[in-house]
Design a protein that fits this description.
single chain; alpha/beta; 6-stranded antiparallel sheet; 13 helices; 12 strands; 41% helix
Length: 417
Amino acid sequence: MKTMMEGPTLSLDTEKLNIVKSSAPVLKEHSKAIGTHFYELLFAKAPELRHIFNQTNQKRGLQQEALVYSVYAAGENIDSLENIQQLVERIAEKHVSLGVKPEQYAVVGEALLQAVKDVLGDAATDEIMDAWGEAYQYIADLFIDLEQQKYADTLQQEGGWQGFRNFIVTEKVQETPDIITLTLKPQDGDSIPDYKAGQYLTLKLDIEGEPYTHMRQYSLCGPSGKDYYKIGVKREKGRNGMPDGVVSSYLHDHVAEGDILPFSAPAGDFTIASEDKPLVLLSGGIGMTPVVGMLNTIAEQEPNRPVTYIHATQNSAAHAMKEQVEQLTAEHSNITTYVCYDSPSHADKTDQRYDKEGVVDLPWLQSILESGNKADFYCCGPAPFMKAVDSALKAWGTTGENRHYEVFNPVSVLNDA
C-alpha cells in the first residue's frame, strides 16, 4: 500500500511553511468557534453531507473539536506528517468506511478556510490565508491518494466490495441489558473478505421519521476468516440533556433476526502488529468488542503468543461476552485473563467473580504482568479509562510504539502529547 512518504510533494516555500506552523496554535486556541462555524458553512454549501456526519456528535460538539484538532496537528507537522501518521491513518480509514469522495474535499476546504477567516477576523491576513490554502490542498491530495489506494486494496481482496452491501442478521444475542451482539451474513451469499482484528464495520441506516441517513461504526468482535461477521452494540443513553443514541436504540429495540442491514467493508487502524512480543489487551465497558475480536484471532492464528486480557467494568451484570472469554481462556494455554469491577455486587463478592475491585492501576499491572512493560499494549474503552491506563503505562516507561489505543468518538487523541 502507498505510504505518506510516497504521496504528493510539499511545495510550500520556507516563508509559507513557517506561517502555517506558527499559526497552527492560533487555530487550536479558537478550535470550538472555528469548528462550529465550519459545519454551519459546510452544511449550507452541501446539505447532502449531513448524511455522512454523525448528527449526535454534532450536537455534543465532538466532531467540531476533532476537526480543528486534526487541522492544528497537520499544520504544526506540515513538513513532517510522519509524526502524526497514526492520526492520518485513522482519519483515512474512517473516510473510506464512510465512502468519502475526492470531489468532496474542495467544498470542505472552502468552508474551512472561510471559517478560519471569519473567526480570526483581522488576524487572518492574506498571507496566512494563502499559506493555509496551499497547505490544505497538499493535505487533501495526500488523503485522496491514500484513500483511493485503500479502496483499491479492499476491492482486490476475495469478497471485497466498495460502497454498502446488504447483510442478514442471522443471530441477535442480548449479552447484557445494554449490550447486544449481531451476527451478519451477506444477503448475496458470496464470500466476504477477512479483516484485521480490531477493525470495524460501518452501518448505513435510514430510520423512519429521521431527516438524515445515519452512519455508525461497530467493532468486529468475532474471529476473522469465517463466512459471517459479528459486531457488538451498546445502547447509548443520553446524558446531560442529550437524547439517547438514535441508531443504537433502533438496533436494540427494532432490529430482529432475519432483518437486512447495509454495511461498508471492514476498516480501521486499531490492529495488532505482526510481531512476537507478548500482548496485553485492556478494555473498559463496551471497549471490549474490538479487543475480544483480537483475542479470538490470537487464539486461532497465534496459539503460542502469550496474551494477557484485562477487562474493567461495573460488575457482572454489565460484563458482556464473559462466558466466551472464559471458554477461550480454558481452551488456550497462551491466554491469561483478569477482571476488574469498580462496583461489584454482593453476589460478585461472595462468588469472587473478579480479580480486582476498583480501577486498573500501575501497581496492580506491575504485579500481574510477567512480561513487564516490554509487551505490546492495546487499549479500548471510555476516554477516562484510557487516560488512566495511558498515564500508568507512561509512568512505567512503556514506549509510545508499544501503546495502541482506540476511542469510540471522533477525538482520537488522548492528550496533546
